[in-house]
Specification:
The protein is mainly alpha-helical and 196 residues long. The chain has 6 helices and 3 strands.
């Protein structure tokens, strides 16, 4: 029995010991690090998304933009931007107008709509999307609370909350397990360098 055990252990050691690594020719060993050109690649978070959640975000944006008092809402946004810029938690430079913020949300919707082919898929959540959503959703909450603003959240707003929560959870993972190197053409707000 001892010889059989020794034979099995020998096989195990041959398969998994570090000494076998030295017998693999250097040319066949995989590189330890892959280098991606910064002008074509960036990092983003892989987040599961449902088509209905992306539609809900589109409906929320539409409700915001078609509200009879949408043009008067700009002062609310400016106050929020100033408050968030004073807050040390936000190190990113924030957008300075409602129009730019709306354009950012539109670009997210367009990218994500193309990435979800079926009822559920994976979207690339860009760095900074958390700040954009916090700013935009806080701005909408202020509009709802304002007496002279007729904006109200559509019924599907809960699905937007679910999507945003999923994105925030991906960013808060301590091990960055959902962070990936992605071609810039697949990440909202990114533009890859032209091929020469």
């Amino acid at each position: 029995m001892g010889a059989l055990r020794t034979k099995r252990m020998g096989l195990f050691e041959t398969l998994f010991s570090s000494s076998t690594r030295d017998t693999v020719p250097q040319a066949q060993q995989p590189n330890q690090h892959e280098i991606f050109p910064e002008d074509k690649y960036n990092v983003a978070y892989a987040v599961a998304a449902r088509r209905e959640e992306i539609r809900a975000l589109e409906h929320l944006l539409e409700a915001d933009q078609t509200s009879p008092t949408a043009l008067e809402a700009e002062p609310f946004l400016q106050d929020i931007i100033e408050d968030m810029e004073r807050d040390r938690e936000y190190s990113l430079r924030l957008r300075t107008s409602g129009e730019e913020l709306v354009d950012d949300i539109r670009e997210l919707i367009e990218h994500w709509d193309n990435q979800v082919d079926e009822q559920i898929g994976t979207i690339w959540w860009p760095i900074g999307a958390d700040t954009t959503f916090r700013l935009y959703l806080h701005y909408l909450e202020l509009r709802v609370d304002a007496e002279d603003d007729q904006f109200s959240f559509p019924e599907s707003a809960g699905q937007v909350h679910t999507l945003v929560q999923r994105g925030l959870s991906a960013m808060e993972d301590d091990d960055d397990s959902k962070l990936a190197v992605v071609h810039k053409r697949d990440i909202p707000w990114e533009e890859p360098a032209e091929d020469s």
